[in-house]
Amino acid sequence: MTQDMISNGICSISYLSKIENNQIAPNTFFIKEIMSKLDIEEDFVNKNLDDQTYLQKTIQAIFYTNVDSLESIYKDVVDIEDNVTINICKLGYQTIVTNRLSGDPLMRLEAMIMNMNNLELKAYLLFSALYFIGYDDYKTALEVLMMSLSISGGNEYIYALTHEQAYYVKQRLLKKNSSLQHYDEAMRIYRKYFNNNRTMRLTLQKIYYLSDENPKLAFDHIDKVKVELLSDLNRDFYYYNKGRLSFLLERYQESAGYLSHIKEESEMHIDKLLLLYEICLIEDDYDMQE
Fold this sequence. Notes:
By secondary structure, this protein is mainly alpha-helical. Helices cover 73% and strands 0% of the residues. Helix 3 runs antiparallel to helix 4, helix 6 (84-98) packs parallel to helix 8 (118-134) and helix 14 runs parallel beside helix 16.
């Protein structure tokens, strides 16, 4: 069938061409009309549309750091087997929520890359990069992230998340000059969608990296952050940053005071203890070291 035959009565030939080349994400109406013209069974079309919806919801939940939503999606799809789209959703959940850093799902999906659309491929590459970051393999992670950014299509959510991770990785690899473009792109989209949680996390992360170069300037920046607007995790990161900056400025008692805001159940608890231990070593506080 020619493009003219398929698009007739549905959309323009150029629009159909963009769909075929992954240059546009068509809405459900166009997909169903085109599939009907191609005599594709409606149940098959609906199933694939549902799969794509799960992937989009997974990406959105990660974008807004909505763990409850990710848990709910995973419960819906956990028993679905041999499905590329659903397996990418599972990989996202395992990487973000359970932190199960197993290479098996990555390898199984890698063999299916040619069957992925651009959104699926970009999501797979992002989750793969997070896997490599989990093992401190920042060089491989950066290669994967750059590959993702070279692919057109996807959506702004995945685009921002990929730029955010590229910023972190380049900072770790001391590619600081080229990292700022990733920071700016991620921040632009987070602000566009009023994503305060990720905006503040990225701001605090930038201050953290600045602290190694200029702790006094970093302290001036963090003093402008409104702590009452932060989520629990970002608030802990804020106090850890302040404690670390005070430590670098040799204000050890002040540092311990900031760190005391971080509770034992926090993800920052181990970082807090390590910094307190450094303070104890400097002050010869043997009881506190124990």
